[in-house]
Write a structure and sequence with these properties.
This protein has 352 residues and is of the alpha/beta class. The protein contains ten helices and 16 strands. β8, α5 and β9 form a beta-alpha-beta unit.
Length: 352
Amino acid sequence: MPTAMADGIVKIALLVNEKEGSNTWQFIEAAIAEGRSMGFTVDAFAMDAEANAERFRELAAGIANADYDGIIFVNGGMGFSYDILRPIADRGIRIVTFEALPFRGGRSIPGLITTFQDDYSLARLSLEALIYYTDDGTGRPPRVFRVTGQPGITFLDRHDWEFNEFVRQGRIVEAGRVRLYGLDNPRVSVWEAVSIALPYIAPGSIDAFWVPWNEFAIGTMEALSLAGRHDIKMFSTGISNESLRLMQRYREIWLASTTIDHKLAGTVTTRILAAMLAGETLDNTFFFSPQIVRTADLNRAVNVENLSMMLPQWKDGEGLFDSYQWMIDLKAAESRFLRISPTPVSVGGATR
């Protein structure tokens, strides 16, 4: 490991802008476990930055002034991420982000590495599933009603771009659209919007709803079920424990969704930071490939924690930034010690 760790201890801060759902905690637990497997000290801090912006900034400032060698930052808009991470970078702390691209006023932060879910592939795989499941043998492209958000939200913009490509290629027909402005309460907002639209959608006039965000999908599913619209199928992106339950409850409607393994993302992002600290040569961007979750394959025992048993491609990230000899040696040395599994505990809005 690098000589920068003069005290012989590698100390990592995991700063998470916590969103609703289970996936954030999967990422946190995996990142802590992977860091500790190499003998690192890993402190995790999780908070909803939108609800506690000033407190979140104070938390980031505290990390900048502490004795950390590296930081993993999770979830953040461009300007907010830049403001949070610039002082940390100025202190010489190495940074890797997941689902955050720090950028403001034409300026980025040199030297950091960004990791993302592959939003284009996530949308493409979901649309491919929609085409497959709605094929009636006539060669007619499926008529799709799209639920999306306002322009400027990066992952939704990427999903929209992929959808528009499918339309341009004649593979699908856009039969209608709900576009939401303001995402303070996305589930309720989309439920209200779809409920208003459904009476104007005659039975048999569309083949499917396409909903490219888990929060939108849950609200859409509630609207479809309350309206009794079992004639319409739904396809989405993103997975949570709640959506897995709803997919099984309404399995004749919600046929598939696509997602990445957030546990894998936490594991691999930590490895990338370790390699960065060790002075390895790395690309500045890494994307996680999605997998499809088919409702027909689900059962009541499935949740986001054990979903990888259905998707063997996920596994433990074998072959992803794990072949460095120093990493192998660190893990071998650390395996001789008994370690307690990481359990984040909330302390005053932050999690350590």
